[in-house]
Amino acid sequence: MLTLHRAAFVLPDPADPTAPSLEDGAVLVRGELVEAVGSFDALTAEHPGARVREWGQAVLTPGLRNPYGHWLLERAYHPDPREEIGVEPVRDGLVGEVDDARCGASARRGLQRMLGFGVTAVAGPFERAAVRTAVARSGLVGSAGGPVAGAGEGEAAREAASEGPLDPLAVLPLAAAVHGRVVAGGRADFAVFTVSAAPAASAIGGEGGGRPMPGGCLATVLGGRLVYRRR
After folding, report:
1. pLDDT 10s digits, 101-120
2. So where are the chain's domains?
3. pLDDT tens digits for 86-98?
4. What is the pTM of this model?
5. Burial class (CB in 10 A: 0-12, 13-18, 19+), 51
6. CATH architecture of the domain covering 2-63+180-229
7. What phi and psi values does residue 63 have, to the nearest 5 degrees?
8. Which residues on adjacent β-strands are paired with residue 28?
């Protein structure tokens, strides 16, 4: 089945300051891959039978990469709602933990929460087998440590061991937080956000001014599947 994801703004490659921002754009998805990226009018004319998901006044970008996966999934503890101790990660709550089942359950909850921030990739290293299994089964892309492309080995090692939030956009600009591009033939991993600043006021991407500023996550698509939608 073909699905068109329509948004007021589509940013196929925020990491490239020269890449265009598509107004009233759309991403056409077939299975787990992106079939095409372009204007909504052009894609609907070419594929009149495609199912349409309307995201309204929103910005669609590649999914985000969380560079703090090691700390978030192997050291922090993500509470079970039945424990009634809140939902925020408990700092170093898994340090010294020997129960693999508890570690795996915590990792699954943490990964599920990441989806609510538009995360489609998470950085390791992951030393616990239960955590590696949770990441593999989640569908998120597991990647090496280091928050920004081009970071040196020392910087990557420091970041892999450091603490950080579930939401990469809380500490990183969009250009540094995205994982890959939304491109025809690529895996359909992307996120949809509210628009928190009009394009004329946005400075995301440095030289690529005129781009919209993303706000809260509305939806996350992973391998073509809608895995998170804000209620």
Report:
1. 999 999 999 999 999 999 99
2. 2-63+180-229, 65-170
3. 888 999 999 999 8
4. 0.87
5. exposed
6. Roll (2.30)
7. -65, 160
8. 4, 36
